[in-house]
Amino acid sequence: xxxxxxxxxxxxxxxxxxxxxxxxxxxxxxxxxxxxxxxxxxxxxxxxxxxxxxxxxxxxxxxxxxxxxxxxxxxxxxxxxxxxxxxxxxxxxxxxxxxxxxxxxxxxxxxxxxxxxxxxxxxxxxxxxxxxxxxxxxxxxxxxxxxxxxxxxxxxxxxxxxxxxxxxxxxxxxxxxxxxxxxxxxxxxxxxxxxxxxxxxxxxxxxxxxxxxxxxxxxxxxxxxxxxxxxxxxxxxxxxxxxxxxxxxxxxxxxxxxxxxxxxxxxxxxxxxxxxxxxxxxxxxxxxxxx
Length: 291
Prior knowledge:
Layout: H1 12-15, E1 33-37, E2 73-77, E3 81-83, E4 86-95, E5 110-112, E6 117-123, E7 131-133, E8 138-144, E9 152-154, E10 162-166, E11 169-180, E12 184-189, E13 192-202, E14 212-217, E15 220-232, E16 238-242, E17 244-247, E18 255-260, E19 271-274, E20 281-282, E21 288-290
Parallel strand pairs: 2-4, 3-5, 4-6, 5-7, 6-8, 7-9, 8-10, 8-11, 9-11, 10-12, 11-13, 12-14, 13-15, 14-16, 15-17, 15-18, 16-20, 17-21
Antiparallel strand pairs: 1-2, 18-19
């Protein structure tokens, strides 16, 4: 997480335009976890959600919204859960950590090692700083009931890194849903978000800056919301959009692609235009549906 200068504003409004930096199936004793409730049969690796969860999988096709899943049990979380390999939550609800606010000092609920997968999890509120990925990771069918600081933060230094959010959804992200601090490409597909500041933000003032890319496809967002993707045009960031649906925005106030002039000083990055171009923001009118 970026260390802001002592005179920097930390209000939610001031933080809308900036990003910030900030991860083994968990071993016994790594975190205190108590699980209760019915467990569904585990999924076969790489095949998606469990059989019991199939009816509530977030498969968004065009303007359709998947039903919010029903939990199959509860997991009480008292400390960050480290994940390597795959953690299949079988649609249990994990709760709670942090205070539900916008403090940048909150711990994440899940800390994914490079290459890890978190699947079929409902994250209750408060969720602290959500999910941290130390490098390439997959978040499959993960649902945030009420986003605290950020739903997930993606790190890693290699330009070849790939991160995937596949299915799932988030509610109540006053600031950002997905925060991209590392290098590489994040793909967000078949996802839904309701009440959000920005769906995606490439870190605007991290101490180490790099080019970042995002692909947003098969996504449904419901207002209130401000921006689908915030990127840094001066660092060569790109954002690509296909099959995106925006619900309840008759005046088309949600900005699809907001460009900023990023920096590595911790200062607030100024805006640098909106809309499609042939350099940073890639979409046409046919890629965005209003409902």
